[in-house]
Amino acid sequence: MRKIIRFFAGMTAIMVFSVLGLTGYYQATIPDHYYVHQGEQLTINSLVSSSQPQQIISTVSSNQSSGKSVQLDLFGIIPIKQTMVSEVNQTEVIPGGTPFGIKLLTQGVMVVGLNAIDSEDGLKNPAKDAGLKIGDVITAVNGQPVSSNKEISALVQQSNGAAITVTYTRGSESQTISIQPVISRVDKHPKAGIWVRDSSAGIGTVTFYDPNTQLFGGLGHPVCDVDTGMTLPISYGEMVSATINGINKGTIGTPGELIGAFTTNSPIGSVLLNTDCGVFGEMYEQPQGEPVPLALKQEVHTGKATILSTLDGTTPQEYEIEIEELNLNEKSVTRNMVIRVTDKTLLEKAGGIVQGMSGSPILQDGKLVGAVTHVFVNDPTKGYGIFAENMMSTALSLEQDQEKKAS
């Protein structure tokens, strides 16, 4: 009898510690804010179970009020934490999967190199000596706004060797410094020793188009400078038609890529935002396809899903994947899920996820749940995805900005 009592006592202790551990896990991982569709109650799928991905382990008590704090409970009985819930209308979007060309003009010019000048007094780096750093964005020289390398070069030449004032941004701060150009021993011209980038171009994949706002979202991650790796601040960009002509297959340690080309220089849309969640703007014509509901993050679960991507030409195909992990942490805006390619055709043609597929829509249960963002370099069959909710939130901020400008 005592052995039986000890057994049940031990089992009870294990269960208590398991529940406490699970409670602590969810307290740390569950966000402080959720959206729900009007009239619906918040339910959260298991984040730790892959064998039963749709098992609901956490629900919020009923009678929730939009925009107010509500109690979140484990198994409906064990309190976990308070979270904010706001009601939103169900959004329907047209999934993309089509390639598009991106042409971006930077807001100011980004410093991508600081070059030493061969002067009569030896090697000098005026810009570096004045405090300029790679990644800084120059917005004005001698009080004149600049948006190209040619403009900066011309203003330095016009100085005739006199000091110039340079206004730049570093992060969210704007500063002005004085740079003293030096005369190059090679061509006898004044130089500041600055290499800058004023534009960028590439090919990505459209994630969605919103028929109600004519706005699109793509890539699922920012367009970054190839030298600095920093997000390019843009003043304006164009969206143009593109086609996929081939694939460099991905292998372990070497990411593959889609080989594409612009098919026209005539814009089919405008790119207005370049953010951590992707690029966003306006498409001039509605693409083909039927709208599907856009899923909120708590509707996504581990298990089978598909992606839409174009491996040849301009027409996307649907490929099978598995969502293996979910990350609801609000500090991680782009790496919200780990996905694995299971489709034999996609594995045979591309080796899995390759560069250029970023933005490929992820579909599950008839809804748009996210987009492909990154490939694992050491395993091209796997990669990261972003929640569609995060991308739509950015698109809505763009819509609100446009409404303010129009009013």
From TrEMBL:
Pfam families: PDZ_6, Peptidase_S55. Its EC number is 3.4.21.116. Keywords: Hydrolase, Membrane, Transmembrane, Transmembrane helix. SMART domains: PDZ. InterPro entries: PDZ, PDZ_6, PDZ_sf, Peptidase_S55, SpoIVB. GO terms for molecular function: hydrolase activity. Residues 127-170 form the PDZ domain. Residues 173-407 form the Peptidase S55 domain. The keyword Transmembrane applies. The chain crosses the membrane at residues 7-26. NCBIfam families: spore_IV_B. This is SpoIVB peptidase. It comes from Clostridium facile. The gene is spoIVB.
